[in-house]
Amino acid sequence: MALDKNDVEKIAHLARLQINDTDITEVAQRISNILGMIDQMQSVDTSAVSAMAHPFDAGQRLRADQVTERNQRDYYQTIAPATQDGLYLVPRVIE
């Protein structure tokens, strides 16, 4: 698909871009090349290719789910400014 000067001016207007008149021909050629590449990519037969979530076929390394630190909740509750029924009390910020 080849673009002409009018097409590039319309695209530039919609994208709120200012393109110099001397550069419009070059921009039209570059956009046409990109659209041509997209046409080539769309013509490739991908029916035998399965969909992937990630381009690398690698499993994620996971560590064993083990407790690595002891529970210090009771200690933190004792040094907190205010607690009630195991909860931290904080000043009200929203009325």
Q: What is the secondary structure topology, with strand pairs?
A:
Layout: H1 5-14, H2 24-42, H3 73-79, E1 83-84, E2 87-88
Antiparallel strand pairs: 1-2
Helix pairs in contact: 1-2
Description:
Helix 1 packs across helix 2 (24-42). The longest helix is centred in the middle third of the chain and has 19 residues, at 24-42. The mean pLDDT is 89. The protein has a two-stranded antiparallel sheet. Helices cover 38% and strands 4% of the residues. It has a domain at 5-41: Histone, subunit A, CATH 1.10.20. It is mostly helical and 95 residues long.
Give a quick rundown of the structure.
This protein has a domain of 37 residues: Histone, subunit A (Orthogonal Bundle). The protein is built from three helices and two strands; from the N terminus they run αααββ. The chain has a two-stranded antiparallel sheet with strand order 1-2.
State the total count of DSSP E strands. Answer: 2
CA-to-CA gap between the ends?
Answer: 61 Å
**In percent, how much strand structure appears in the residues?**
under 5%
Helical proportion?
Answer: 25-40%
